[in-house]
Structures are given as C-alpha cells and as structure tokens.
Amino acid sequence: IIGKNGAGKSTIMGLIAGVLSPTSGSVEVDGRIAPLLELGAGFHQDLTGRENIVLNGLLLGMSKKDIVSKIDTIIEFSELEEFIDQPIRMYSSGMLARLGFSIAIQANPDILLIDEVLSVGDQDFRKKSENKIYEFRDHGVTIVFVSHDIEAVGKLCNKVIWIENHKIKNIGKTEEILELYRAHT
C-alpha cells in the first residue's frame, strides 16, 4: 500500500489488524495475523525483553508452550542476547523493532502486516529481516506492506494499492501502479 503521509495507509493496516474499528462497513480477515505496525506496540515498558516475548507472543495468539519452545530462537534472531533480561524501556527503537519482528515471525502467520517498521535498525538486521520476509512470501504468506520505499515495494510486492485522501486511487500490478505513482508525485 503506497500513498502520501496522511492518506490512510496505516489506518487500513490498523483495521486489518483489528486494533481499529471501521466507522462503517466491515473488514474480514481469514487467517492468523502477525502485525508489525508500531515499534513497541504490545510491549510493557517495565518488563524485560524475555518477559515481553511471552506477553507479545500471547497477544499474537501463540500458546505459552509454543512461545517457551521458541524463545531461544526468538532471542537468537533478534541478536539481543546481551540485553534480553533488561527492561525494554532501556531499548532503542532499533532494538524494539528487532524484538517485535523476531516474535512476529515465530507466530507462523498466514498474514504478515508490515508498516514501515523495518526501516529502523542496522543494515545487517534489515537484510536478515528482508530475507525472512521473502521466505514468507515464497511460502504463500500474504504480506500487506505499507511503505514510502518504492524500491522495496517493487521488489516485494506483486500488487499495489495506491491510497490518496483516504480512498483507493488505483490498484493493480506493481510495475504499472508504481509508474503511475512516480509520474504523479
């Protein structure tokens, strides 16, 4: 989903994730969702990274048994071993992004919602996360990706929705819509 700031992209993601309710109409979702909408969403600032893995995993619909069995994998992917037992109020935004992404990918989602959060963090982690996203895509996971990074949209997506003033301006094949969008902006 592309469009200028304020067009309604993040609102659509919130509606799909179920954190916002529509003022009219309805939103139907079929499958397990893993939302990466906002850094630190669903985290408790006073809990440690380890405790927040359990909390966030539960919020994503994982069982406690499943979370506990995957906790080492989550910590290893996040590369936060050194900090995992500190309260996350001490974490940088990049560390929060790492932790949130690492938990979400272990939820085995049918639908992965990504709202620009992967633009934070160092280059190595971004590349590792990108590779994981491509792996999900190649295994049939639906990815809804909101970004201003047209290059990333072109690489990841096979369909684009262009939002303008809270309405769909255009929808279609990635190359066609991105070309129209570039010409318009």
Summarize the SSE layout with pairings.
Elements: H1 9-17, E1 33-36, H2 49-59, H3 64-78, H4 93-105, E2 111-115, H5 123-138, E3 142-146, H6 150-156, E4 159-164, E5 167-173, H7 174-184
Parallel strand pairs: 1-2, 2-3
Antiparallel strand pairs: 4-5
Helix pairs in contact: 2-3, 2-4, 3-4
Compose a concise summary of this entry.
This protein is of the alpha/beta class and 185 residues long. Helices cover 44% and strands 15% of the residues.
Could you list some keywords that capture this structure?
185 residues; two-stranded antiparallel sheet; three-stranded parallel beta sheet; alpha/beta; single chain
Strand content: 5-15%
Task: Tell me the series of helices and strands, N- to C-terminal.
Answer: HEHHHEHEHEEH
Number of strands: 5
Bulk shape: globular
Based on helices, strands and strand pairing, what is the structural class?
alpha/beta
Would you identify the regions where 5 or more consecutive residues have pLDDT less than 50? Answer: none
Largest sheet: 3 strands, parallel
Whole-angstrom Rg: 17 Å
> How confident overall, as mean pLDDT?
90
Query: What is the straight-line distance between the termini?
Result: 15 Å
Which strands sit side by side, in order, in the main sheet? 1-2-3
Number of helices: 7
Proportion of helical residues: 40-55%
